[in-house]
Amino acid sequence: EAQVTQNPRYLITVTGKKLTVTCSQNMNHEYMSWYRQDPGLGLRQIYYSMNVEVTDKGDVPEGYKVSRKEKRNFPLILESPSPNQTSLYFCASSPRGKNTEAFFGQGTRLTVV
Amino acid sequence: GNSVTQMEGPVTLSEEAFLTINCTYTATGYPSLFWYVQYPGEGLQLLLKATKADDKGSNKGFEATYRKETTSFHLEKGSVQVSDSAVYFCALSEGGNKLVFGAGTILRVKS
Prior knowledge:
Number of strands of chain A: 11
Largest interface: A-B, 28 and 24 residues
Oligomer: heterodimer
Largest sheet of chain A: 7 strands, mixed
Structural class of chain A: mainly beta
Low-confidence stretches of chain A: none
Largest sheet of chain B: 6 strands, mixed
């Protein structure tokens, strides 16, 4: 089954404790991205990757890191989480191109206390 | 920059009512337009799309027409069901894969 898998689904952590949210897709898509969803703001792009070893900042990259060592994986790293990073996070993948459909993971709800 | 504006929700309707969710956009070029739907506890999934002016996207009884003159892409359905209760996001893509989303509209359908 074609899918994007994120882990964990739920995470509560403390300020400053490094964490990683994993994302994996099995569709051989070139393009992957991370979004955060906040009430009233919709989804905002954090980082994206056009292919292996090619990553770039989205609209709200501060406080986040990513890597793309393999085509299927695109982890999101919070080196020192802060409460303002409490949010619902989505990973998405799509084939390269303007009108292609993006496939989303089920989301990771992160709470930083 | 590019942006998408959706009507605020929540929208509450009775089953079999007519649905309209308004969406307007601002873009420098000629974007592709999308509606994504998010059911409770799930990720977003593509509902329909339109890639050029006057195109109509349709799926599962939902329709939206790309109106360049009014920069709009309103979502409509003639008769909603309880199972349509979800959050609906309008989005645009202008070059490449990046999506710009609206704030989302919560739809609640009562039986």
